[in-house]
Amino acid sequence: MSKEVNIVIRGKPSYEKWSIYQWILETIHILEREYCIKINVSTIDSLESNPVIIINNYVIDEIPFDEGYVIECLKKILDKLFQLCIE
Hints:
41% of the residues lie in helices and 29% in strands. By secondary structure, it is an alpha+beta fold. The relative contact order is 0.26.
């Protein structure tokens, strides 16, 4: 796993931001194995009322509050950045 991805959840402290962070943490090991990458996840407090996800230089805003949608958005960006790893 030499490739690294930085995921930042930015926004004001809220239940939505915390939930998105937790959803990503719950699936991080699956995504790391699937793409043979190392994922770093962090949060940044800001004045934005709705959470924003930043994956390397890709920004996902206007995120519906749904775990499946968040994970699919992550996978679409990871598909652009990396090929699937076959082990």
